[in-house]
Specification:
By secondary structure, the chain is of the alpha/beta class. It contains 6 helices and 11 strands. The longest helix has 18 residues.
């Protein structure tokens, strides 16, 4: 975005104006499902480059940052990692994401909640369960069900439904993940309002054993979402593969 230099002001005054403008304009990078430790090589660098390219100043992870394949409610791989090894590897990989984006929102996905659901199934009270920030060593990340910025809701999508459907149903611009093959931004216009639904795809490695359920099916969409100018300019950015 081109800076607006005011010739009657000094460079210092212009710098202050640009700083004030940057602080008041929110540009959001929305990172797709990671499913660590089964994220695609290169996806982190792609996210870092996209963040810089579009002058983003806020990050939302759209959920399923961990996979927890070893504890899935579905069939697991007999040749896969055990629980301790998979979690340790996931923590090590998430550390790189945390180093790149030390302040972020994380909307909890169905895979993130697997362990909590297993605890509930076993009638274990919440007090026995550690917080995500403690387990994953991410003290400055905000884990939440959903979050709204500038009239745009960011939510994983497993409960709210597909982005276009949720936006139209609730009359609220909605950005979601969960559906690994969905990648779009769709506007809907009414008499007094314009809203959009955005699906951000994912950052998964579909060749990993944890993603075996996808193999042979529809191709996953690898990319991110970007929402610029306080929710006014949403678009998808695909990763070159």
């Amino acid at each position: 975005m081109k800076k607006q230099f005011r010739p009657r002001l000094t460079e210092e005054e212009n710098a202050l104006i640009e700083k004030h403008r940057a602080n008041n304009v929110q540009n959001v990078l929305v990172i797709g499902d990671l499913h660590e430790p089964f994220c695609l090589d290169g996806y982190l660098q792609f996210c870092k480059d996209t963040y810089k390219k579009y002058n983003c100043n806020k990050v939302v992870f759209i959920g399923d940052i961990i996979d927890s394949h070893y504890s899935s409610y579905h069939e697991t791989s007999a040749n896969g990692l055990g629980g301790a090894d998979e979690l340790e590897l996931a923590i090590n990989k998430i550390a790189k994401w945390y180093a790149a984006f030390p302040v972020a929102d994380v909307t909890l996905g169905n895979h993130d909640r697997i362990i909590i659901r297993k605890a509930q199934t076993s009638n274990i009270p919440n007090k026995w369960i550690k917080e995500f920030t403690e387990v994953l060593n991410t003290p400055n990340w905000n884990y939440c069900t959903d979050v709204i910025y500038n009239g745009v809701r960011y939510v994983h999508g497993d409960k709210s439904g597909k982005a276009r459907m949720a936006a139209k149903r609730d009359m609220l611009s909605t950005v979601s993940g969960h559906y690994h093959t969905d990648f779009y931004t769709e506007w809907m216009f009414g008499k007094n309002a314009a809203i959009f639904g955005m699906a951000v795809g994912a950052g998964i490695d579909s060749k990993s054993y944890a993603m075996g359920y996808m193999q042979g099916g529809k191709k996953e969409a690898i990319g991110v979402g970007v929402v610029l100018e306080n929710g006014k300019i949403p678009f998808n950015v695909p990763m070159e593969l």
